[in-house]
Specification:
This protein has four helices and three strands. By secondary structure, it is of the alpha/beta class. The chain has two domains: 4-70, Periplasmic binding protein-like II (D-Maltodextrin-Binding Protein, domain 2, 3-Layer(aba) Sandwich); 87-123. A three-stranded parallel β-sheet has the order 2-1-3, with helices on one face. Helix 1 (20-31) links the parallel strand 1 and strand 2 (37-41). The longest helix has 18 residues, at 100-117.
Length: 123
């Protein structure tokens, strides 16, 4: 199990954009006064390739790493703070027309994300 304190002086490879799980993770590090070297990337694929080459560790959604974990190329380690769970939101204006193509995309996204999450999603 990885404890927050174990991350001191480690190289953390994280997404550059502000995403909810990154913000939660940074809050945990700050609360525990853990300082680590953080390198930010614009691409999850770039982060995965760096981790595969031993350049650091990362915190990413398991769904983004599923193939590498199944192939035993990467290892998912339990975190002492428990799993970090965040919401996925799909937002649209209630009075705007939704084209058939957009409706199809929204339905497919709900289905796929629901399967990954293991539960049906509300529409």
């Amino acid at each position: 199990m990885v404890r927050t304190e174990d991350l001191k002086r480690q190289t953390l490879l994280l997404p550059k954009h502000d995403c909810s799980y990154k913000m939660v993770f940074e809050q945990i590090l700050s609360a525990k006064k853990v300082r680590a070297t953080v390198i930010e990337y614009n691409s999850i694929e770039a982060i995965k390739q760096c981790v595969l080459r031993g350049l650091g560790i990362t915190l990413l959604p398991e769904s983004a790493l599923q193939a590498e974990i199944e192939q035993k190329r990467l290892l998912s380690l339990p975190f002492s703070e428990g799993p970090l769970e965040t919401a996925i939101l799909m937002i649209w204006h209630k009075d705007k027309w939704i084209s058939p193509a957009l409706k199809c995309f929204m339905d497919a996204a709900r289905t796929l994300i629901g399967k990954l999450a293991g539960s049906p999603l509300r529409g």
